[in-house]
Each structure stands twice: as C-alpha cells, then as structure tokens.
Amino acid sequence: MRTMGLDVGSKTVGVAMSDAFGWTAQGLKTLEINEAEEQYGFDAIGSLIEEYEVNKVVVGLPKNMNGTIGPRGEASQFYAEELRKRFGLPVILWDERLTTVAAERVLLEADVSRKKRKKVIDKMAAAMILQGYLDSQSK
C-alpha cells in the first residue's frame, strides 16, 4: 500500500507517490484542473488511487506564516474533505508552508529553465509535502 501526496492549486494539482515501504516520495505528475469551473480532477485522482493501491492521502495545507488559514488553505481543506467522501481513505492535511518556494529554489540551483520549472514545480512540491509527512512517521 502506498501514500499519495497532493499539492493543490487553483489550476493544477501536483501528485507524488510513496514507495511501497513508505520511505521515499517521488513526484508523479501534474494534473490540470479548473477550480473556477469546479473541475477538480477527482476522476484522475481515483484512477491513480486504484492503480497504485493507495491507502492514505496527504494534502498540503498552505497556512499563512502566522499559522492562520487563508483562502488557499480553505480550498485545500475542501479538497481533502471531498477526497475523504469520494474514496473513503484517510486524508491528512500537512503544513506545506514554503514547499513551493523550496522546490523553486532547488530547480533554480539546478539551473532548470523557467519553462521546464513550470512543468515540474507542482509535482516536486507534492513530493516535498509527502516526504515531510513520511519522515515524521518514521520517528
């Protein structure tokens, strides 16, 4: 059984998957969504849950730096609740402050072009969210 990590935005969802042992996270893909038109990519998420035999989902929760929940955090809470209802799996909200910033920094240091960064940043952020959760579980 695997754990799926999600970095939920208004236009994309970065997807990461753990290995079978739950030790490491790998960026898997970026799904196109349209929050404004209520297209959230749940069918694609469901297919991945089935294909990878996922038993738990970790959704990044973007908190403000002072710990409060803003509009993006509320959107992630909604997304997590929908996943719970639709798939009946445990869904953990994981503090993701600065993961996208950290992912961007890693890609900049690796001298990845802006065009290529845009394609991989969300799945990389999802992998960082998931790895943070996995690391917390092994302690």
TrEMBL record:
<dbReference type="GO" id="GO:0004518">
    <property type="term" value="F:nuclease activity"/>
</dbReference>
<dbReference type="InterPro" id="IPR006641">
    <property type="entry name" value="YqgF/RNaseH-like_dom"/>
</dbReference>
<comment type="function">
    <text>Could be a nuclease involved in processing of the 5'-end of pre-16S rRNA.</text>
</comment>
<keyword id="KW-0690">Ribosome biogenesis</keyword>
<keyword id="KW-0378">Hydrolase</keyword>
<dbReference type="Pfam" id="PF03652">
    <property type="entry name" value="RuvX"/>
</dbReference>
<protein>
    <recommendedName>
        <fullName>Putative pre-16S rRNA nuclease</fullName>
        <ecNumber>3.1.-.-</ecNumber>
    </recommendedName>
</protein>
<dbReference type="GO" id="GO:0016788">
    <property type="term" value="F:hydrolase activity, acting on ester bonds"/>
</dbReference>
<dbReference type="InterPro" id="IPR005227">
    <property type="entry name" value="YqgF"/>
</dbReference>
<dbReference type="GO" id="GO:0005829">
    <property type="term" value="C:cytosol"/>
</dbReference>
<keyword id="KW-0540">Nuclease</keyword>
<keyword id="KW-0963">Cytoplasm</keyword>
<dbReference type="GO" id="GO:0000967">
    <property type="term" value="P:rRNA 5'-end processing"/>
</dbReference>
<feature type="domain" description="YqgF/RNase H-like">
    <location>
        <begin position="1"/>
        <end position="103"/>
    </location>
</feature>
<dbReference type="InterPro" id="IPR012337">
    <property type="entry name" value="RNaseH-like_sf"/>
</dbReference>
<comment type="similarity">
    <text>Belongs to the YqgF HJR family.</text>
</comment>
<dbReference type="InterPro" id="IPR037027">
    <property type="entry name" value="YqgF/RNaseH-like_dom_sf"/>
</dbReference>
